[in-house]
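quick q for whoever's on today - can somebody do inverse folding on this one?? i tried earlier but teh output was garbage lol. tokens:
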């Protein structure tokens, strides 16, 4: 894809239509221009160009001023536009928990996603970071001799630090040893987690089960010989598994 086509696609993602992009780019090149000059340069009908300029104005990409009684259009500063979209994205991120909750109420059919291999397990784990400030409930069985080295490194040098940065707490019933985030003090308090251990001989756990907001349950293995997992998205499934965890948590001393 050449640079022109790339610019076209990127600007379309910011909300411009296919016909609006050339006008905005031409205005960036010229600095300002009347509608009839733009129309001639672009080989377009003046009425159509004027209509598109009005649309761009409503979207905040174009402004105008009068010079010698002629309406001149000029483009918005691209840097300011990007800042506006970044700010809007951050605000949308803050709304994400509320939006997900509303979406889940209207969704009755379970959604099941399958993951496989190192990259698949990493993609699954990324879903655990979707809701900052939440609490994740887990049944975790770890065999340090069997965990895939790439996943162990991913947990220790990347994933766990981002979980802590996002304020996502972790409550788990565990067998075996669990990894620590390398960027934080190696204490469970600093790692934002509360753990209870069970005897692996009495209660063997060969996979991890994560229950996390607002409707997800992940079941997966990161052992090097069986890198597979699924995420089930369904409120009833999530609510039931959350209750199962709470019953088990109460029963572990």
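ok took a stab at it. sequence:
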């Amino acid at each position: 894809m050449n640079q022109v086509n790339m610019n076209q696609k990127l600007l379309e993602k910011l909300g411009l239509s296919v016909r609006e992009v050339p006008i905005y780019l031409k205005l960036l090149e010229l600095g300002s221009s009347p509608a009839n000059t733009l129309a001639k340069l672009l080989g377009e009908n003046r009425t159509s160009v004027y209509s598109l300029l009005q649309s761009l104005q409503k979207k905040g990409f174009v402004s105008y001023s009068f010079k010698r009684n002629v309406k001149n259009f000029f483009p918005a500063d691209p840097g300011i536009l990007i800042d506006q979209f970044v700010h809007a994205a951050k605000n949308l991120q803050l709304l994400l928990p509320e939006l997900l909750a509303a979406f889940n109420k209207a969704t009755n059919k379970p959604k099941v996603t399958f993951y496989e291999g190192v990259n698949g397990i990493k993609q699954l784990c990324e879903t655990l970071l979707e809701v900052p400030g939440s609490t994740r409930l887990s049944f975790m069985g770890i065999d340090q001799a069997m965990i895939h080295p790439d996943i162990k490194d991913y947990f220790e040098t990347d994933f766990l630090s981002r979980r802590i940065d996002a304020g996502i707490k972790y409550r788990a019933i565990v067998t075996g040893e669990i990894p620590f985030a390398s960027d934080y003090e190696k204490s469970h308090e600093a790692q934002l987690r509360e753990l209870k251990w069970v005897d692996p001989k009495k209660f063997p756990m060969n996979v991890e089960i994560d229950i996390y907001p607002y409707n997800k349950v992940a079941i997966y293995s990161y052992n090097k010989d069986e890198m597979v997992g699924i995420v089930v998205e369904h409120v009833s499934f999530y609510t039931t598994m959350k209750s199962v965890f709470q019953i088990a948590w109460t029963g572990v001393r």
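fwiw The radius of gyration is 26 Å. also The mean pLDDT is 86. so keep that in mind when u check it
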